[in-house]
Design a protein that fits this description.
This protein is 58% helix and 0% strand. The protein is globular. By secondary structure, it is an all-alpha fold.
Length: 224
């Protein structure tokens, strides 16, 4: 999932140039150490997501970037360490701790609308499910998302049941991005439905952020 630019104001959507994901397999030319490291991370995320941990070799990753495999060990230490680095999703959501609450829905809309398709970059949930050590990977993802949403982001919310609301928002966003970007169900993936999609997405997130959200559940006695 791509991280929206922090400088973008609420309600302003990303341009096609801003939303486009950089090629994961661009050949390396005269590239700084930091850019090479970033390119290796991108190539690794692509391969781990598509082929799993066991189906990916350090040589494959280095070859995608056009560098020697020794650079992978130089920058990350080991294949396992590289996998752990690219499997961490908490950094993508870090801006949520600073984005004004009334802009969170716009931030998520920009995140989902601008993310690349699975052919370019894998969804974090699929990366976990395709991992050879799936239980360990699921546990790591749960810890990261719990720390980010249940503990930190929920602390920004006022009103009751903040942790439930924060986790529901996380589940909705991850599920929506999976259906739209990877599975590509026709209504969600259709460009003609973009405005409607963002409208409902924002409305749902705003409800979960609002302090009055918990009061929307009616007492069973009043349903008759």
């Amino acid at each position: 999932m791509n991280e929206p630019a922090n400088e973008r104001t609420c309600g302003e959507s990303a341009s096609p140039a801003e939303s486009a994901a950089p090629p994961a397999c661009a050949p390396a030319r005269k590239r700084s150490a930091e850019l090479t490291r970033t390119a290796l991370m991108s190539a690794a995320a692509f391969r781990f997501g598509r082929y799993g941990y066991d189906g990916t070799s350090v040589r494959d990753i280095a070859g995608d970037v056009g560098v020697d495999a020794a650079l992978v060990y130089r920058y990350f230490g080991s294949k396992e360490a590289l996998f752990e680095t690219v499997s961490s999703n908490s950094k993508v959501f870090e801006p949520l701790l600073d984005v004004p609450l009334h802009c969170v829905a716009d931030w998520f809309a920009a995140l989902i609308a601008g993310e690349p398709k699975d052919a370019d970059f894998p969804h974090p949930v699929l990366t976990v499910l395709r991992s050879s050590s799936r239980d360990e990977a699921i546990g790591r993802l749960r810890e990261e998302l719990t720390h980010m949403f249940t503990e930190r982001f929920a602390g920004r919310l006022t009103g009751p049941h903040a942790e439930v609301r924060a986790e529901l928002m996380m589940a909705w966003v991850l599920g929506t991005s999976l259906m739209r970007g990877t599975i590509q169900t026709p209504a969600l993936a259709s460009a003609t439905n973009q405005d409607v999609f963002e409208q409902f997405l924002r409305a749902g997130i705003d409800v979960l952020i609002s302090p009055e959200a918990a009061s929307l559940s009616r007492d069973p006695q009043s349903r008759s």
